[in-house]
Write a structure and sequence with these properties.
elongated, 11 strands, SseB_N, single chain, alpha+beta, 246 residues, Trna Endonuclease, Chain: A, domain 1, 6-stranded mixed beta sheet, 30% helix
Length: 246
């Protein structure tokens, strides 16, 4: 079982839209072995394309062994993150078959790959903490809390806190703001990009969700995420001295 398989308790094509989005987000960060027509020449590769009834597709697996197992023999391949492969296929009218015969099998047509590349190219929008903040809308919490908790958990050690707040307008909540604290200035662009990507895979929220780096305390009604590092147990105490022989 691989990380993609772990997300595929329900097969990709039978999963709900949020489940599919979570799998596609993980696919983007997974290193894939993609089948080639021949060994790479420098940085030049030619993808092996298979004609299916639904259109031509490239073939990739999340391990070299899985790719070789599909062909029953070693095969020329290149290793690259899913996001790089999706961008390579963008606009080529070619789909992608991933992990055939495994729990995380998915067949992504050209339109889906174009959407995936577009989602990964999203630019983060940062907000200012001087807005009038309140608690998030219940429906936004239901849609975003779990996936955001998982993504923010990957950032433990890079950030010290995170909270989701509503931005109050004249007629109620006009949008939401994800407040991040404890992030070094050098890491902030990458953190903002990763969070913007994560939000792009989640159901859109009325007014959108902006990102703000702020050390100010979030409003008491904001949804806070626990980012405390797990405690490392102390090693067992060794013997105090040599045994006494009688």
């Amino acid at each position: 079982m691989t990380a993609l398989d772990d997300l595929a308790a329900t097969p990709f094509h039978a999963a709900t839209a949020p489940q599919r989005s979570q799998m596609l987000s993980r696919l983007a960060d997974t290193e894939l072995s993609v089948a080639l027509t021949a060994e790479p020449v420098g940085d030049q590769v030619e993808l092996r394309i298979f004609p299916l009834e639904t259109g031509p597709v490239a073939l990739a697996c999340d391990s070299e062994d899985r790719l070789a197992g599909f062909f029953g023999a070693p095969v020329a391949y290149a290793a690259m993150p899913g996001r790089v492969l999706a961008e390579m296929l963008r606009g080529a009218e070619t789909g992608l078959l991933v992990n055939p015969g495994h729990p995380s099998e998915m067949l992504l047509d050209a339109a889906m790959l174009d959407w995936l590349s577009g989602a990964l190219a999203v630019a983060p929008e940062t907000g200012e903490a001087r807005l009038h903040l309140t608690g998030p809308a219940p429906e936004t919490v239901a849609a975003l809390a779990g996936p955001l908790a998982a993504r923010l958990g990957d950032m433990r050690g890079l950030i010290s806190g995170a909270a989701l707040a509503g931005v109050r307008g004249e007629a109620g909540i006009a949008g939401h703001l994800l407040l991040i604290s404890g992030a070094g200035a050098g890491h902030q662009p990458a953190i903002a990009k990763a969070l913007a990507e994560a939000l792009a895979f989640l159901p859109p929220q009325s007014g959108g969700v902006d990102i703000s780096f702020s050390e100010a305390a979030p409003p008491p009604t904001a949804l806070r995420f626990d980012l405390t590092l797990p405690e490392v147990p102390a090693p067992p105490a060794g013997p105090k001295g040599p045994p006494i022989l009688r």
